Amino acid sequence: MSETNKLFPIFLKISQLEVLIVGGGNVALEKAGALLNNCEEAKLTFVAPFFREETLAFVKDFPEVKLINRAFLPSDLEGKQVVICTTDMPELHREIKQLCEAKNLLCNVADTPDLCDFYLGSVVQKGNLKLGISTNGKSPTLAKRIKAYLNDIIPDEIDISLDQMEKVRKQLKGDFQEKIKQLNEITKGVVK
Ligand SMILES: C[C@@]1(CC(=O)O)C2=NC(=C\c3[nH]c(c(CCC(=O)O)c3CC(=O)O)Cc3[nH]c(c(CC(=O)O)c3CCC(=O)O)/C=C3\N/C(=C\2)[C@@H](CCC(=O)O)[C@]3(C)CC(=O)O)/[C@H]1CCC(=O)O
Ligand SMILES: NC(=O)c1ccc[n+]([C@@H]2O[C@H](COP(=O)([O-])OP(=O)(O)OC[C@H]3O[C@@H](n4cnc5c(N)ncnc54)[C@H](O)[C@@H]3O)[C@@H](O)[C@H]2O)c1
Questions:
Q1: What residue stretches are annotated with the Siroheme synthase central domain (predicted)?
Q2: Which residue has the least CA distance to atom 8 on ligand 2?
Q3: Considering only CA atoms, which of 72, 136, 86, 83 is closest in space to residue 106?
Q4: What is the 3-state secondary structure (H, E, C) of 96-119?
């Protein structure tokens, strides 16, 4: 059988988690952008001895972002649940990954699949609908292309259908199996 993608996608309530981003440069900006564009209340703490202007300009309007202006210390991991390493210091990333393992923290080392417990995905968003795309680390660029393609072909009106379905779902009576039958019937024509 051909190779399969064994990653399991979950949709994190990122505003309920404490996230540490180590580094404040281009890659930090890219990863923070990925999180904040999905949830502007994401609780991000950055630690870095130097922050790029672009990073500072981007994060300044987000209420839950904190900046610590010095080199990483192991104590920065206290109270954190997710850690994203974005510096230009591979040795530091290996050390942080080990510290995270000892504390059972989920760690992503940007652009370094071997050190990641999870990958960031490409995200398609149409109102309440969200699709996460993974290429199993094979090609983030192709993931970006697939995102653009899906963004074009999924109609904006899908969000109206979702709102209508929510109302119907709340009004339906009957036992669970009967509800599923009715919901399947109503949604038959939505995706053709
Ligand atoms: C989805 C997205 C999320 C995000 O980061 O926001 C993401 N990378 C994005 C873009 C992107 N990254 C890179 C380029 C330059 C072109 C290229 O190299 O292809 C571009 C394209 C661009 O920027 O246009 C460089 C790169 N990335 C990785 C490596 C190392 C390697 O593969 O070995 C290298 C080489 C570094 C070097 O040269 O040394 C690895 C990872 N990048 C991942 C995620 C994870 C796998 C996701 C998947 O399964 O597809 C994984 C495994 C880990 C992680 O970082 O979480 C985001 C899409 C943005 C969008 O949707 O618009
Ligand atoms: N820029 C890109 O798009 C890109 C693409 C692929 C790979 N990379 C690689 O990713 C790495 C980061 O790139 P970048 O462009 O974001 O670099 P950058 O210079 O913009 O940022 C590096 C950040 O790491 C911080 N840092 C350094 N030592 C630290 C420490 N001890 N504790 C905390 N923070 C520390 C710096 O203060 C800075 O904020 C580099 O190794 C680069 O080669 C970058």
A1: 127-148
A2: 27
A3: 83
A4: HHHHHHHCCCEEEECCCHHHCCCC
Indicate whether 192 belongs to any domain. no
ipTM summary value: 0.95
181 CA to centre of ligand 1 in angstroms: 41
| One domain for residues 114 and 162 | no
Question: Element (H or E) spanning 26, and its range?
Answer: helix 26-36
Domain of residue 36 covers: 14-120
Give the model's pLDDT for residue 1. Answer: 66
In a domain, 46, yes or no: yes
State if pTM tops 0.80. Answer: yes
Q: How many separate domains does the chain show?
A: 2
Ligand nearest to the CA of 118: 1
Structure tokens at 56: 């500072």
Q: Is 19 helix (H, G, I), strand (E, B) or coil?
A: strand
